[in-house]
Design brief:
Number of helices: 5
Distance between the termini: 37 Å
Radius of gyration: 20 Å
Low-confidence stretches: 1-51
Strand order of the largest sheet: 3-4-10-5-9-8
Structural class: mainly beta
Shape: globular
Largest sheet: 6 strands, mixed, barrel
Length: 385
Amino acid sequence: MKWPVLLGLVALSECIVIIPMTKMKTFQETVLEEIMAKHFLEEQSYSLPQDTTLDHNFSSHPLRNFLNMAYIINITIGTPPQEFSVIIDTSSSDLWVSFIHCQAPSCSKHLRYNPKTSSSFQSDEGKPIKLSYGSGSITGVLATDTVRIGRLIAKSQTFVLSMNQLSGALEHAPFDGIMGLAYPSLAIQGTTPIFDTLNKNGIISEPVFAFFISSWPQKSSLLMLGGVEHAYHKGALKWVPVTQAGLWQITVDRISMNRKVIACSGGCQAILDVGSPYLFGPTDIVRSIQRSINPSPLQNEQRLILCNRTMTLPPVIFTINGMDLPVSRRYYIQKISEDICFITFNGGTENISPSETWVLGDIFLRAYFTVFDRGNNRIGLARSV
């Protein structure tokens, strides 16, 4: 059964009912508008470093950070190659890009795939496809062609040609689609996700991928496929078993601050998600955490805080598989302006499950280098450099 996750970019099959999270989306869009007012023009370029490190163990691919909201990689589709920028998402499994026949106004802002110019294109007849995400949905049709990620080649890869673009906060982002890296059980029925194609055909040496999500402008974020580049983490990797092979879901023992348990007191589940920018938990628990961090909110918005009040905030400690993993204020507090910051804890996961569940998004993953090991159904964590 596919899990009805509603946060970040998590995708679902068309048979799942989506419950909108309007309040959370509105706040994200408000924050994004503040940032984009300063940076929008410079973010419109589709350029991304093309350097791909490839050896007999794995390949390493640069990711572009879009305003700390999404991480983008360049791929090509077709023969000759047509280039696209796609968002990486570990809580969905499908690949889609915009279709040349998309007539929606938003599609004109993105690169679109043209099957007539590709000699390796194959049409997949069938019913229309709908993919739903926390930030909207897309509809389209299936197609098959050669997909390249750097020098990794997935022949006869099935993907979706979208007839519309996601709306809202990501509508103007410099991307043309999404590439999912969750388990194949979340993919469109009868299709094989691109990671599984690379693995089954021996294009990568191990069924493993890893992320270094950089906190520094001078260091590029990276996606590693087929292995791990250990120079990007400190100390040994600590392994945590996956509890549900669909999403990248694990067990958390507790969440604490100032030696006091603030959440997950009896243990809970958490989904590690490159594709969700923040930390998400049950609304009531998150509100309590926000109040303890920020007893004097700005503009009646509990997540807005004066930056000078954040300097002495303690780390939030996630205890996972017996290991204490602190996340400092440097990660869970983000600046909107010179004086105003916001707290990156958000509610809404009660719509996932009646039991306490968290989504550990990019805030957590910047602090911890993360290895997703499909072969052993486990996740490796170590402090990022």
